[in-house]
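Researcher: We're teaching a course module on how sequence relates to structure. For the next exercise, students receive a sequence and then see the predicted structure as tokens, so they can try to spot secondary structure elements on their own. Here is the exercise chain.
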Amino acid sequence: MTYSVKRDELTEEKRAEMKNIVSRYVCAQCQKELTIHTNPEEATIEVGCLVKDHSGWLEKTTAAQEYRRAGQLEAYRPDLGRQMNLLALRYPSAIVDMPTAALFITDCMRLGLDPLIQPA
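Model: And here is the predicted structure for the students to work with:
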């Protein structure tokens, strides 16, 4: 799926819409950034993946959004040891082993809290 506009019909409003699409979405098949490119065969300017066979867009998400949608946070698993050490310094009686640290971090994410930020 591409969003295309004829070159002679391109306005600042349509250009802004194209930039908005590029900043908010990624390719649904390869998860790569979308680009604004020209199609000389049809005399259009298009937004889409550079791979012509790919179609569809996915909205970019943050780690918290992925967690709320029951996604996997595999990228953050290697940091658990580092996070556990930081939390153990701050909460020595609460963080005693890996399972309690993982539970504590999961509860903080579920509640939208950052336990390392000091209260104002």
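Model: If you want an answer key for the exercise: Residues 62 and 68 are 10 Å apart (CA to CA). Residues 3-59 form one domain.
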